[in-house]
Amino acid sequence: MKLNLPNPWSVAIIAALLGSLTGSGTALLRATTTPLRTGAFATRSAKSSGPRPVAQTSETTYNFGRVSLGGTGSHAFVVRNAGTAPLLITKGTTSCTCTVSDFEGESEEKNSRNVSAGDEIVVRIKWTGKGEGGPFRQSASILTNDTDRPEIAFSIEGTVIPTWKAEPNGIVISGMSANTASQAEVKIYTFSDQLPRLKKCRIADDSFANKISIEDRPLTQEELHDEPEAKGGFNLSIHIAPGLPLGMIRTSVEASFSLDEEDITAVVPVEGIVSGDLMLVGRKWDRTYNALRLGTVSSQTGLNTKIFLTAKGEFRDNVRPRVVDIVPEGLNVKIDAPSHIGGGDVVRIGIEVQIPPGAPPANNLCTKTAEQGYIILETGHPNTPTLKIPVCVAIAE
Fold it and tell me: Are both 55-161 and 278-396 of the same fold?
């Protein structure tokens, strides 16, 4: 009987396929029976032979507790070289208010330091209280030549306590009327263990002093609970009498008090728009700031524009404007005769404002360095007898 032996090449191919399938099956079996590991994985590297530095520190976080706004604090972290070779440390990255101020034993200009084997060094971290108060966490780091610990990050945390805080931090009075009274309140909180001693409260703009008054009283314990960490303070009630000029009101409340033997003035902005039976409209009338904005005008060409004064209410027919003062002197003002609109419910009066060619130079652009100009009218209205129209203008040669 003749045996037909398989071709050697066929045997080799079949063996290779069987080996591949066996290996894949083994790998699949291991993958399905080995539990999945999570977390950090360390790469294995051969330890270098010979001396090497080892950086050690007992703490990397420190809580400052309460830090006053603008105050500074620092803490000393100790770094020890537990190795057998010199440890080189260098100042690393920091957050905006936290710095590695120095390494003990070196000047502040020294950015790095060698620590001998078995020695230690103090790394001082400095922090300044900034912002508006509240919890904080900042960090600073150092770099080392320890291959197992190339960077050490230090964190400091705590709470910034402001000296004082106003709530609200600005007073916006809506719906002010020239004919009725208005009122607003603001609380001034203090955070020192010593209670504040209020000395004086006033309105910054003296021209409002006869129309705006302020009453004060200490904050109650219940009110203090509304502001975490507050220890004292006072409540200010602002009373606004009728008769304020129409338009935008911008001023501030100034409260002067002593705290921890320091004299402090808390300034709280106050603003609002006073409305009434009289109102101004026109192409160059800025309703946002309630001012006539003429900009820069050449004295060679001059300017001519018109705004309108409207009057409503029971005294509308009493309104007969008359100019009593103008700044700058280069302005000319002409007032039209009243006319009735809206079925007679509203009286409209045109006010023509001119800067004639050849007017003298002036700068009244309503900026910090250039005070506003104005037109003051006697109106004839019993509730608003005087109307001041702010004018923002510069007359250039």
Answer: yes
Q: Does the domain formed by 55-161 have CATH 1.20.120.450?
A: no
| Domain 164-275 bears CATH identifier 3.40.50.300 | no
| CB neighbour class for 344 (10 Å; exposed up to 12, middle 13-18, buried from 19) | exposed
How would you write 100-145 as a 3-class SS string? Answer: EEEECCCCCCCCEEEECCCCEEEEEEEEECCCCCEEEEEEEEEEEC
Beta bridge partners of 251: 270
Give the separation between CA 119 and CA 98, rounded to whole angstroms: 26
Alpha helices in the chain (DSSP H): 8-33, 221-224
Cα three-residue angle 174-273-212, rounded to 5 degrees? 85
* φ and ψ at residue 112, rounded to 5 degrees: -145, 165
Q: Which top CATH class is 278-396?
A: mainly beta
Closest of 241, 225, 251 to residue 167, by C-alpha: 225
pLDDT per residue as tens, the chain (397 positions): 444 545 554 544 444 444 544 444 443 334 344 443 333 333 344 455 689 999 999 999 998 887 776 667 788 899 999 999 999 998 888 775 666 666 765 544 467 888 999 999 888 888 777 656 678 788 888 899 999 999 999 888 888 778 888 999 999 987 788 778 899 999 999 988 889 999 999 999 888 888 899 999 999 999 999 988 789 999 999 999 988 877 778 899 999 999 888 899 999 999 988 888 999 999 999 987 789 999 999 999 999 999 999 999 899 999 999 999 999 999 999 999 999 998 889 999 999 999 999 999 999 999 989 999 999 999 999 888 889 999 999 999 8
Strand partners, 249: 272
The tokens describing 48, both together, are 């270098």
Whether 135 contacts 159, CB under 8 Å = yes
Domains of the chain, by residue range, sit at: 55-161, 164-275, 278-396
The pair of structure tokens assigned to 182 is 């208005």
pTM here is: 0.55
Comparing CA positions, the residue from 321, 377, 311, 314 lying closest to residue 347 is 311
Kindly state the DSSP code that residue 318 receives in the 8-state scheme. G
How many other C-beta atoms are found inside a 10 Å radius of the C-beta of residue 51? 10
What residues have CB less than 8 Å from 347, skipping those under 6 apart? Answer: 310, 311, 312, 316, 317, 319, 338, 339, 340, 341
CA pair distance 35, 25, nearest whole angstrom: 17
